[in-house]
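yo

u said u wanted the structure for the complex thing, so here. seqs first:
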Amino acid sequence: MPEVTMVAALNTALRDALAEDDRVLVFGEDVGELGGVFRVTEGLQSEFGRERVFNTPIAEAGIAGMCVGLAMAGWRPVAEMQFDGFSYPALDQIVSHVAKYRERTRGRVPMPVTIRIPSFGGIKGKEHHGESPETYYVHTAGLKVVVPSTSLDAYRLLRLAIADPDPVIVLEPKSRYWSKEDGDLTREGPGIGAARVLREGSACAIVTYGAMVAPCLEAAAALSAEGVECSVLDLRSLSPLDVETLAAVVRSTGRAVVVHEAPLTLGMGAEVVARIVQEAFDHLEAPVRRVTGWDVPYPPASLERTYLPSLERITAAVREVVAY
Amino acid sequence: MSTRDPADDGFPTLRLVAPDGAPVGDTEVGLSTEELRSLLRLMILSRRLDRECMALQRQGELTVYPPFEGQEAAQVGSAFALGPGDMAFPSFRELAAAVVRGVDVVEYLQYHRGTWHGGPYDPIASGFAPICVPVATQIVHAVGWALGAKLDGKAACSLAYFGDGSASEGDFHEGANLAAVLGAPAVLFCQNNGWAISVPPQEQYVAPIAARAAGYGFPGLRVDGNDVLAVYRATKDAAERARAGHGPTLIEAMTYRIGPHSTADDATRYRTDDEVERWRAFDPIERFRRYLADAGIADDAFVEACWAEAETWVGGIRAELVALGPPPAAEVFDHVFTDPPATLTRQRQEALGDA
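structre next:
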C-alpha cells in the first residue's frame, strides 16, 4: 500500500477534481508556480494551465467574493486562504453571501464553493498562523464545515467538498500536513455529515477532530495499558454534526471527554456537550469534561505546549471522568 | 453641503445634453428614435413606480424602501447599454435598472414587502443579480462573474452598481484591483448621489472617485449622471471595451438622491431644502424630455402617454403586491441546503410539525 502525506493527498484530490470536472477552478495566494506555501497545489498550474489554476493578489475578501460570481457563472471554485488568521477579511463575503446565496435566491443560484483554510496550531508558527476559526463557520447557517485528521480522509473530504452542491469550508490541520497514512485514495467511505469511530471501548468516549485526533488515539492507547478502554470519535464534519453517531457512542460509554484546540468558551465542545446532554442524558454516569485550548489568544511558539491539549491533560481528564 | 453642478467640477465630466435640454456634445450615440423614446419612457415608468413605492411604504404595504428619485438617468442609461448576455450586480437602490433589465417588479418588491430576501426574482434569467445590501460586496461578485464569462470565452460583461459611500469599502479596492489584474470584463458603475446616508462627499473622500481608476491601471471617467445620453454613451463604450477583452472601466455618474436614504431616514436633519431644490433643476427626465421635444423625437402627447401607461402599470403592480401574503413558513428551511442535513430537518419538524 502506498504511504501518503496529507499534503500529497490534498494535492491529488485537487488534481483529480480538476481532471474530472472542467468547471473546477483553483485559485488563491501563491497557489500557482509556487504550489502554495504548503505545496498543496504543487504542479497543478503546469498541468491544468493558468486559466484553471491561478494566483490572486493578497485579497481574501476578493477571493471569497469572486467565488460567488464564479459560481453564478456556472463554475466550481476551490479557493485557498493562505492561513487561518488571514481568512478573517473574507468572513463578510463568506457569512453574508457564500452561505446565504442559495437561500436568498430560493435555490435558483446554488453555491458549489469550496474554501480551503490551513488551520490550527502546533507548527510553532508566528501569530495569526495558529487560529482555530471553526466555530465562526459552524455558527453560520448555509455552510458545511469539515476537518480531516488523516491523509486518506483529507482526500475523501476534499473531493466530497468540491463535488458538493453547497459551500463547504475545509479546515486543514497544518500540523498533520506531513503525517503519513497507508492506503488508496478514494472518495468511497463516510460522507460529509458522518463521524468516524476510530477505536471502540466501553469506559469513556473521547470526542475530537482534526489535529487532536492523533493525541486522543495516543491517550486511548496509554489508558488501555491501564485497563481503561476508550472509544475515540473523529467528528470530521463539524457542520452538519453527526449527532446520531455521537449519541450512540456516548450512550454506550456513559462518559465522555471532548477535546479540541480552540478556546473553551463557546468552542465546538459546547455544542457537542449540549447535544450529548440532550440525546444521552439518561446514560450519563459523569459530567462531560472538555479538554481545550485556553480562553487566550494563541500563544507564541515557545508556549504552544502550554496551550494545546496534551496527552497528559487528555488522559487526566479521562481518568477523572471514569473515576467519578 | 452638496450643491455642485457636475459640470462645475474640476474633473472632466462627460455631458451631451445640458440641464435645459440643449445638446452640448455629440448626441449621436447610436440609438434609433424608437430607442431614444424608450429611454424617456423607462425613466417615466421608473419615477412613477418609485413614487408608488413610497406611497405603498407609507400605507404599510412595504417595509423600509430606499427611493431613487433623481437617479433615473444614471440607472436607465447604464442598464440600457447592457445586452441580454450581460449581468448587472445591483446594490439596493437600483429598481430603475431592474425595470430596464426586465426583472419582474412584483417579485423584486417582495424584498421590500418583507416576504423574501435578496433575490426573489430569477437573477440568472433576468441578468440582474440579487439585491445586495452590505454595500460594495457586489463589486467583487461582478468581477468573479466577469472572470467566469471570460474563461468561458463569452463576449459578455458584468456591471456593478455601487454608490459613493460604497467606494470607501475595502471590497471596492479589492474588486477594482482584481478586475485589473485578471482582466475581468467588468464595468464598475458608481452612482455618486451626493450622500452616504448623512455623510457628504467631503467627509468621505478627497480625490474624485473616477480618478482612482488610474491607480488600478484602467480607464476611469466621470459622467453627468442626470444626462441619460451621456450615461448611455459612457456605459456602452465601457461594456464594448470589456466584451472585446480590454478589461474593466470605472464610471462615476454624478447624480443626486432627491429623496431620503430610505423611508426610515429624515434627510432634513443633514441637508437643506434649498439644496434639494437646486438639484431638481437638474432633473434627468425634464432635461431629456426637452431634448427630445426640441429634436422633434417625442412630443407632449408621447410624454402624456408614458405617464398614462405608468399609471396603469403601477396600478397593476400595486394590486398584485398587496394581494401577496407571506410565503409558506417551510421556505425558511427549504432553501438553505440542496439536501438538508438531519440536524436541520429536526428543527424544521420542531418548527412546523410535519408540514
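Chain A touches chain B at residues 25, 51, 54, 56-57, 59, 61-62, 65-75, 77, 89, 92-93, 96-97, 100-110, 141-142, 165-166, 193, 240-241, 243-244 (CB under 8 Å). Residues 3-182 of chain A form a domain with the Rossmann fold fold (CATH 3.40.50.970).
cya
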